[in-house]
Amino acid sequence: MTILARLKTETRAAHDRIEAAMDLDRRIASREGYRDLLVRFYGFHRAWEETAAGQAPDRSFFERRRKTQLLARDLEALGLKSEDIIRLPQCRPLMPLPVPEAVLGSMYVVEGSTLGGAVIARDVERRLGLDAETGCAYFRSYGRDIAAMWKLFGAVLLEASSPEADDVIVESAQKTFDVMHDWLCETP
């Protein structure tokens, strides 16, 4: 079983749990609910990116996948001022990311949510009339490159795979799902 297959299998329950708890229909039914959802994503990504950057196995690979600036741009488009955005609460405590393999496991969750973001972006555009320029840049983060970015990420995971690394990768992905669930589904 490849690391990608193992991740999909062993994190399925956590993925289903967060998907059910997110209540996206309610959260994207209004601009205010959508903005509040983006605030939660911003708090997660800002803390996660700061923590993960120091252990990322490939700095340029990691940098291309940062989402905090896209979220800040969306929040500004939805009326928040930049000085208010930088003071938004951040996700704490975060899961430990002590080694590059842990970052890769955590990135599996973050990159996977980017895939789901393409579907959410269509709903946001249909319901709220927002696009990448008017408040939906985060959910459209890779645009037409989404499949290529996922494929490249998968290749990096496969390259890093070994019996010892795979255990760390899977454990980190599971912890990331738990932290993301608690942060995104918590009422601020």
Automatic annotation (TrEMBL):
<dbReference type="InterPro" id="IPR016084">
    <property type="entry name" value="Haem_Oase-like_multi-hlx"/>
</dbReference>
<protein>
    <submittedName>
        <fullName>Biliverdin-producing heme oxygenase</fullName>
    </submittedName>
</protein>
<dbReference type="Pfam" id="PF01126">
    <property type="entry name" value="Heme_oxygenase"/>
</dbReference>
<dbReference type="InterPro" id="IPR016053">
    <property type="entry name" value="Haem_Oase-like"/>
</dbReference>
